[in-house]
Amino acid sequence: MGILPTNKIGKITDLSKQVIMLYGRSKIGKSTFCSNFENALFIATEPGLNHLEVFKVNVNSWETFLTACKELAEGKHQFKNVVIDTVDKLVVYCSDHICKENGINHPSELPHGKGWSLVTTELNRAITKLASLPYGLVMVSHCDQEEIETKTKKYNRWTISVSGKNRGIFLDMADLILFIDSEVDRDGVEKRVIRTKPSMNYDAGDRSSLLPEVLPLDFKKFSEYFTKKGEK
Hints:
The structure is a single chain. The chain is built from six helices and eleven strands. The chain is globular. The two termini are 35 Å apart. It has helices at residues 30-34, 62-74, 87-102, 114-131, 164-173, 219-231; strands spanning 19-24, 40-44, 55-58, 81-85, 136-141, 143-149, 154-160, 176-184, 190-195, 205-206, 214-216. The relative contact order is 0.17. The protein has one domain (15-231): Rossmann fold (3-Layer(aba) Sandwich). Helix content is 32%, strand content 26%.
């Protein structure tokens, strides 16, 4: 019997099946927002969760991360979502792992960019495998502002705090790229918001087409867009 499908698969709108890239400045509420995902396991690569009641595994090396991924793949747990908080630090652990394997202190020590290539390959392998598991995956990052220069103008753009080809690993695989930002209303009150659509000024995206361009940083309101879709 062949493996080719005979029927189209339906659109997957279950929030616990999405791959999400979520980023924003420090202390804006990224981790608190993620703590609302159903049965979420935090892979905590850096401090910052002391005031949240969550399931977490502290990860301070690439080897520990791979061990956690292996146990998740075995499926003997109650978790429905995995939150990597943050991927910024995870990239550092992956780089340290490659350096240790090759007896170097920095990826740049290998000629012709081989060190950086090894880091990207290993990172891509592990994250892709994790994203393929039957759980939601939320990847959290800080934000950086980079200068973009074209033939006609220069402008600044917010993006995740991961550079080079490694940035593409996280952005390209995400179903949702959510930029946590703030804006001031007519009364001069600052409100935190989620930006979901592509812009010249920041990375964002919504393959589900369920979300408005801007919505409040409110998990209940965010999740309702997926719940309502599922009830139709």
